[in-house]
Design brief:
This protein is an all-alpha fold and 139 residues long. It has seven helices and no strands.
Length: 139
Amino acid sequence: MSITLASHPTILFATIFTGVLLIYAEANRPGSIVPGCFGLLLVLAPLPALLTPPVRLASAGLLSAGFALCVLQAWIPVRGLATAVGVVGMTAGIARFYDRSVQPNPLASVLLSGILGVTTSYLATVALRARRAKRLTIH
């Protein structure tokens, strides 16, 4: 039971997403080592299990393109359109990531990719605003 649950795609993607958020928490407070270490562990630990079953390359491409669109939302002034398209791409990528033998719950895929897309877009926008607002002082 635990092996089946640990190799379920939705659990694996949720673990990776949690790790990314912990790495972001480490980036916000440099020097607090614990979130960064746990985040790296949560990102790297599921990767072997995620790539073990036969993976569809088109789905991996959709997942990557959706993530890239969510990050590009910070630089493209289209009022959330890139995030919406990115979330749709990530949803399609997660839903069909494996062959037919292992399929995640469709509702969980939509929910997980929606949260991932909106959070990624928000974090990229915040990072871009912080970079633009940074003032250079010359002494």
